[in-house]
Amino acid sequence: MDFSNINMFAILAATLSTFLVGWLWYGPLFGKSWMNVVGLSEEQVQQGNMAKIFGFAFLFELIMAFNLAVFLTGSPEAAEMMNATMGAFYGFLAGFGWVFFALAVNGLYEQKSWKYIFINGGYWTVTFTIMGLILGAWK
User: Fold this and answer.
1) What is the C-alpha separation between 60 and 41, in angstroms, rounded?
2) What is the per-residue pLDDT across 13-47, written as a single tens digit (0 to 9) for each?
3) What are the residue ranges spanned by the domains of the chain?
4) How far apart are CA 128 and CA 14, in angstroms?
5) Taking Cα atoms as reference points, which of 18, 36, 34 lies closest to residue 26?
6) Which CA distances in Å does 15 have to 32, 100, 124?
7) What gap in Å lies between CA 59 and CA 31, rounded to an integer?
8) Could you tell me how far CA 20 lies from the centroid of its own chain?
9) Which sign, positive or negative, has the C-alpha torsion 96, 116, 14, 84?
10) Average pLDDT in the 46-65 region?
């Protein structure tokens, strides 16, 4: 595997984009609905250990962005063909085709609602699409 095509600045930007999307998704867009389906109040959310939550989230999302970058640009041939549109498309396929449906399977076994599945699966679909767009555009 040739890692010379991997742009660490693009990976960092893709990682940070997950926080922006998360702030919008779990804030003004679906925050109240999400808290309702997971059974948390605003006070409980605010009582969480934010340093631990954000620290591990950053680490895990950095790993995800690096992993996606390897899929998109890990070979010279793939890197040469990659652009923003292809990156977004492959990011969408990863987010929707793998992550959304993996969460849906878990949600079914955990007897979660479809609302729970769509809120969380939708977040990851949008997040991976944007990560792919960044990684494809900034290779």
Assistant:
1) 25
2) 999 999 999 999 999 999 999 999 999 999 999 99
3) 3-137
4) 9
5) 34
6) 25, 18, 12
7) 23
8) 11
9) positive
10) 97
CA 113, 116, 120: angle at the middle one, nearest 5?
A: 150
User: What pLDDT does residue 89 have?
Assistant: 98
**Residue 119 to residues 9, 15, 35, 101, 112: CA-CA distances in angstroms?**
29, 20, 11, 12, 11
Residue with tokens 């449906």: 101
**How far apart, in Å, do the first and last CA atoms of the chain sit?**
16
Average pLDDT over residues 118-130: 98
Helix crossing, 50-73 with 8-24: angle to 10°? 130
Token pair, residue 12, equals 């960092």
Q: 3 pLDDT band (50/70/90 cuts)?
A: confident
